[in-house]
Design goal:
With about 170 residues, the protein is α+β, with helices and mostly antiparallel strands. Helices cover about 55% and strands about 15% of the residues.
Length: about 170
């Protein structure tokens, strides 16, 4: 794009979409360097525990802000959940698939994960993110609709099929 002196309001649609992607990558980089700093200073177990606590708190806040921006009230079930999952920063940096086998079920599958891809390139094992994922998606679901429940279908350190990193099943309990 080149350096320009423009106000954000003057950016084109394409420039704004590019900015959103850059900001999402920056958000993910911050999460990663924070985790690495804690791991280096206190070890993997402490970093995983702190990551769990941070994501448990952050996910509900993020979801409530996105719902407010969308104009979605709490209690929108699977429809609200789908909408939130599609606009989170993660949706700009990871490739995912959403399936709705019925009106009360949504399955969210992460097909490409920037964190896991970076670890793979560095020759590292899969990041054991399942506990953090549980905290993240339980709080996200609760913020969208307290009737939603979450089940981890698989997530590292679990074995996972080729082409998928994790899968999460959300059910609307009536």
């Amino acid at each position: 794009m080149g350096w320009q002196t423009k106000k954000m309001e003057e950016f084109s649609r394409e420039e704004l979409l590019s900015l959103i992607e850059t900001l999402a990558k920056n958000w993910l980089a911050l999460d990663g360097v924070w985790f690495q700093a804690v791991e280096k200073s206190y070890g993997l177990e402490a970093a995983l525990e702190m990551d769990y606590q941070a994501w448990r708190r952050y996910s509900g806040l993020e979801t409530k802000r996105l719902m407010s921006w969308l104009g979605l009230p709490e209690g929108e079930g699977i429809i609200g959940l789908r909408q939130v999952l599609q606009i989170r920063p993660q949706s700009r940096v990871n490739r995912f698939e959403i399936m709705t086998p019925d009106d009360n079920t949504l399955i969210y599958c992460l097909k490409e994960c920037r964190v896991q891809a970076a670890r793979k390139r560095a020759g590292l094992p899969d990041h054991p993110c399942k506990p953090v994922g549980i905290a993240e998606y339980e709080e996200l679901a609760r913020a969208v609709d307290p009737r939603l429940t979450v089940r981890c279908m698989f997530c590292p350190p679990d074995p996972h099929p080729e082409g998928y990193w994790c899968a999460w099943e959300f059910k609307l309990e009536e």
